[in-house]
Records
---
Amino acid sequence: MLQSAKEFVLDTVFPKFCAGCRGEGTWLCEKCLAEIVFVQSPTCPNCQKLTPKGQFCSRCRSKSNLTGIISACHWREGPLRGLVHMYKYEGIRELADILAAFLIWQLKKNPIGKNTVVMAVPLHWKRQNVRGFNQAQLLAANVATYFNLDLLENALVRTKWTRPQVELKGQQRKTNVRGVFACRNSKKIINNKNILLVDDVATTAATLQEAAKVLRAAGARQVWGVVLAKG
């Protein structure tokens, strides 16, 4: 099939360069894809003990609002970091399809079960206006479509403008996101649901934990973080 005029012009004016080796023609070449290390043996996000799907182990569970964190890849220097940076900060939205495929691969290995819905960690409206899109929302939409699950949009909102988490460390991250989320007119659709809460990368998981706290208070049965990698 002939390439559309729009695609031809965009590829000519804005050529694609591999996130890993910078070779022209694709966002991720086969060689660099082979360098991405996928998670084969999920572990407790806190103590790293082997656990099913990446759930928190019995010892760490009481300290967590999340049921677990399903992580697709290991966060190492290389192509994955390049892809995430290009997607999130350079606004290359078509990378959502590639990155979502990583999440889908891991979720196929670790199905959550019935009564499951998908949602994204929301951005504050000011940051979304600046960035132009919510990177987690596009990933969540891909996941929901693939598994034929409901995508809950606007069920969880970010009510406060905060500093970017990437600028902070440790306890600062927890303090920064404290009380920033709220559920609005959504308790009926959240009640007793297993929620796949999608984000790009979990460094300390402070954002996921704070969002999960609000969702559990609204009646969610389980809340699983779903991320490309844990930092």
---
Amino acid sequence: MGMDKTGAARGRTLWQLFLSTLYISAFTFGGGFVIVTFMKRKFVDELHWIDEKEMLDLTALAQSAPGAIAVNASILVGWRVGGLAGMAVAVLGTILPPMAILTVISFFYAAFAANRYVALALRGMQAGVAAVILDVVFSLGEKVVKERSALSMALMLAAFAATFFFKVNVIYIILTAALIGVGKILYLRRGTKGDRT
């Protein structure tokens, strides 16, 4: 009986995960960072399946791994929520809407490309996308500021400057930040071992 309840609860979680990723993917325009914003609102703020710090980590991993950020983020969130089955349903929910939309567009590409109203609609969406990305920067960046860690603040500001002013490739920024993080962990462990002796 207990096993049946556990299985039913797991099935409901997987179904909700699938519907959530399907909905987010179907109504998100502007790429991976926008999808990450909506994932944060859904899985952190609304469902409380993941905390903010973990979402920041998942976003960093999704961006640094090869492939589309949206799919990478879905894989990581799905795995965190429901293991292998969660990963499968999250990816399926994420890729179905774009596949369906792009299939339809491919048949009518010439008409879409030449249509003035479609071009204007896409231009309007670009402004909306910029606002959504700015929102996620502030909401996730706020967590870093609240930690009051000098290293985290310095890394965040240096990463922004490197990207915005010096046009450094984001891969180099991520790898540098990862190396600094590993260095900090090793330094703290060495300090802890020194205290014990």
---
Amino acid sequence: MKRVPDVVEHHLFDSRFYLISEKDDPLAQQEKVTTPDLTGRTLMVGGGSPPVLRALQQTIIQEIQVSYFNSYDHDTTLTNVAAHRGVCIAPGFLNDHCGAFAWTPFDTEKNIPCALYTHKGESRKHVQEFVDIIQKIYRDNPDFPV
């Protein structure tokens, strides 16, 4: 959005990263997954990942012995997880909470800031009220899994 002129950013939350795996995967039973836990596993990367996630993926690939392959998009990644082809690290905002997969917190300080944007000249009262409501929901629920 930095390239779009005349917008105002309204920060909502910082999305954490999670390991997506099958529910019966041993890593799904952990409270948090670390980079060394992925040793010997197959990691899906790519798929239009934002820069911060691509950097995290590359760090993992360089630090430990892990196989990896590119996955086209998030839906393809979920299909590959279900087909026992590997695991993936994804931002929490992609979690549809359907319960089909395990989303285990991944041990990293990195995150993806998520925001709502309005036009700079936006002055309608109901738009600002909406922004305030959404920000309050995220501010008052810091443990919401995002």
---
Amino acid sequence: MKLSPAELREARIAGLIVVGLLLFIFETYIPRPIPWLKFGLANIATLIALYWLGWRAALTVAVFRIFIGAFFTGMLFSPGFFLSFSGGLSATLVMIVLFQLRSVGLLTVSIAGALTHNIAQLILAVYWLFGNPVLWYLLPYLLLTALITGSITGGFSYYLLQRLKQHFSTPI
């Protein structure tokens, strides 16, 4: 049975949602040197969706991944969910804008997404969750970790996109 182009696109989006969920689950088992530090490996699925299938697919992957991941971890509509959702949605929107401008590369888009994710979460934590401006002292550490984790996820995403170009005849 041959899939129509629309069905193939939907299957690829669904596959990227699953990959994002698997990376999210895998990341929970990686020991963290700092309690709040996560590598954001699930963002690889969003970056691949953005560069392979476009901005609508990236937004779909990010939103579904966050909601389904929160549901399965029992965190849906908890403060942690809202932190994750605000960070993930704002990061995806910034990555979409940068991607649309076509003036920077994938690594820069990934780093900008990681920076945005951390800043959005900090803003929500300071003004809504804790109401404590002392949390702003975390900003330099969050920015440094975002540079590192954004580089890691961007590098993996670039590598995987190159592999996809080799294995699929459809344009990426």
